[in-house]
Amino acid sequence: MLLIAHRGASGHAPENTLAAFGLALKMGAKAVEFDVHQTLDHELVVAHDDDLRRCGKDRRALKNIHWAGEAENIDVGAWFDPRFKGERLPRLQDVFDLVPPRVELHLELKSGSAVYPGIEERVVDFLHRRDALKRTLVSSFDHDALYSVRSLDEKVRIGYLLGLTRTAVAWRETKELAAESLNISLRQVTPRLVKAARDRGLKVYVYTVNTPLDRDRLAKLGVDGIFSNYPELDLWR
Ligand code: G3P
Ligand code: MG
Residue 8 C-alpha to ligand 1 middle, in angstroms? Predict the structure, then answer.
């Protein structure tokens, strides 16, 4: 079972920062998850929320601010602990510069082009330029975004975040998308759902799994991977 460091080692360092990704690597993580948005000047940036209210004390939506001169200056570390003061919002390229090729990347698109015009093209183009198609899974709750990604490239690896979608719809869409995995929340896990997905050739990844008890239960159920804020939960490092 693969442990994917969720937003980096986000139990120990501010989520979705180079500090959190660096720590995950130090802790031996074999895979890392992060969330992607786009600024007004089309920079791909790594953050969970649509704005930096929670992690940067800045109320403006990322889609409405420029990277240059604005987003690049926002401190996204101090909210977590004063030790991380000065930590800056990373760009997608900063994450790829940091994380070595042996580590799998789970790139979650928080919204598609309905919110961030052209984001799918930009991400696919980026993966090509970085020769990163093999090491990266693109996931999203926004299934229209996944269809756009798929139409741009038949080789991109796709993770289908189930969200509130009915399973009958999910089975059709994962097939149409040639998705590699079904990504579900811990609350959604049932032996039946795990089996149904695996019977369809899908890997099953579960978020967010932060206790040894849940980890062991899911390992027994045969899930393929867990997203965790605590890379030390990986017994298979
Ligand atoms: O990709 C798994 C997980 O990250 C999805 O939920 O809200 O933590 O991005 P969230
Ligand atoms: Mg995520």
Answer: 12
